[in-house]
Amino acid sequence: MYVVAVEFRVRSGAIDAFLPLILEQATNSLSSEPGCHVFDVCQCEEFPEQIFLYEVYEDRAAFDAHLASDHYGTFDSAVVNLVTEKHVRFLHRKTVTA
User: Fold this and answer.
1) Is 97 inside a domain boundary?
2) What is the tens place of the pLDDT at every residue in 22-48?
3) Are the C-beta atoms of residues 10 and 82 closer than 8 Å to each other?
4) What was the pLDDT predicted at 97?
5) For residues 9 and 66, is the Cβ–Cβ distance under 8 A?
6) What is the CB-side half-sphere exposure of residue 85 using CA atoms within 13 A?
7) Which of 22, 21, 51, 56 is nearest to 39 (CA)?
8) SS3 for the chain, per residue?
9) In a domain? residue 98
10) How confident is the model at residue 64 (pLDDT cuts 50, 70, 90)?
11) In this structure, what CATH number is given to the domain that contains residue 43?
């Protein structure tokens, strides 16, 4: 599985505008992309303007399809002025068996 971890720092005063957009993005990704298995949106308790995404895709091609989707383009354009920082990490999930 291909994992994408994204950390956003949302501009002061913009979190109420950002949250509905990222939640809609997660819903769209899970419902319309067969290669997207997990799209968790996490908000920091201590610093609510910090948002962490944990996304799991079938493979890199599924993630590339996500980036090419209309809903991703719409989301990315909508939040560009709401975010001060964005850090993306790409990981490969290892399966643990008992």
Assistant:
1) no
2) 999 999 999 999 999 999 999 999 999
3) yes
4) 85
5) no
6) 8
7) 56
8) CEEEEEEEEECCCCHHHHHHHHHHHHHHHHHHCCCEEEEEEEECCCCCCEEEEEEEECCHHHHHHHHHCHHHHHHHHHHCCCEEEEEEEEEECCCCCC
9) no
10) very high
11) 3.30.70.100
User: What CA–CA distance (Å, rounded) separates 15 from 20?
Assistant: 9
Q: How far apart are CA 87 and CA 8, in angstroms?
A: 7
- Give the residue numbers spanning the domain of 51: 2-92
> For the chain, what is the domain count?
1
For residue 86 the two structure tokens come to 């964005």
Instruction: Kindly state whether residue 56 falls inside one of the protein's structural domains.
Output: yes
Residue at 75 is within a domain: yes
